[in-house]
Amino acid sequence: MQPLDASFLDRQGGAVVLIVDDVPDNLAVLHDALDESGYTVLVATGGEAALARAAQALPDIVLLDAMMPGMDGFEVARRLKAGAATAHIPIIFMTGLTETEHLVAALEAGGVDYVTKPIKPKEVLARMGVHLGGARRARETAQHAGQARNALDAFGYASITVRVADGRLLWQTPLARELLARYCGPGWHQQVPPDVAEWLRRVHGIAHTLHEPPRFALEQGARRLAFHLHQQTGDGAEGDGEWLVVMREESDVAAIEAMSLSFKLTAREAEVLYWVAKGKINRDIGDILGASPATVKKHLERVYAKLGVETRTAAAGMALGRLRQLQPGFLA
């Protein structure tokens, strides 16, 4: 089946409605009534088909039969509400069950309303009208947010939305998925790695008190994947929030080359200055570069002369300023 283009469906008239029912007669009655009222109508006769159709078309509202063979309507609703792309879609249950516990179960599964069988099309239309205005606004908000986040990819800034309590990935752009797989392995498509989750839990409660919350990086040779908090998107309660986190891949090699050009340094002088900006002492820099501390000191003296400074602190300050221009959010 070819994926449905939700934007194409929207242009065909009124709201897009997905009807899910395993009884053909019920589908026919509702389809005709809704079609005559100007809605674009999609149908599914089972749970799996409903989930696939909802993911493809992103309907404005779902009319969902509670009792179906195989996957019942309650499970379909739970899965729709668990998906980032479909969580905002209102669900109206259609049920012949009138006991309180069944109606409560429908609402707990994610339904916003219910109608009882036998179905009365006028009642269904009235209930739909109550929920569609808010649903359309929620959908547009979700689409705009998705477009904005995906736009970050074009500039090398991948973004994810993470739930603080359990590290669950609620949203990720294509570049984010690629970077997480490269640095963490292919299994991290639903959860962030434990060390990233721990960093997020640690800074979540204090982020609002800090001008620049602590950042985090995953190292991979001369490259690193840097994470920083961008915007809180969920509940602000301790441990229960959601954050939009921006990631960017950074490279020692690229930064060193850029500093060499910026300050007219040799490759080795640029390396020494780079590691000074990272807070390394001469002995550590020597270990990294395979040179003695005395050699590092000589290179550093030439760096001072070219930068027109006299102290390690001044040289590091100039280097940090340039690195933060080259790599916003540079982690010293």
Automatic annotation (TrEMBL):
Keywords: DNA-binding, Phosphoprotein, Transcription, Transcription regulation, Two-component regulatory system
Superkingdom to which the source organism belongs: Bacteria
Pfam families with a match to the protein in the record: GerE, Response_reg
GO molecular function, one term: phosphorelay response regulator activity
Keyword RNA-binding: no
Modified residues (4-aspartylphosphate): 65
Domain Response regulatory, chain residue ranges per copy: 16-132
Any one cellular-component term (Gene Ontology): cytosol
Biological processes annotated in GO: regulation of DNA-templated transcription
Signal sequence residues: none
Residue ranges occupied by any HTH luxR-type domain in the UniProt entry: 258-323
DNA-binding listed as a keyword: yes
Name used for this protein in its record: Response regulator transcription factor
Organism: Paenacidovorax monticola
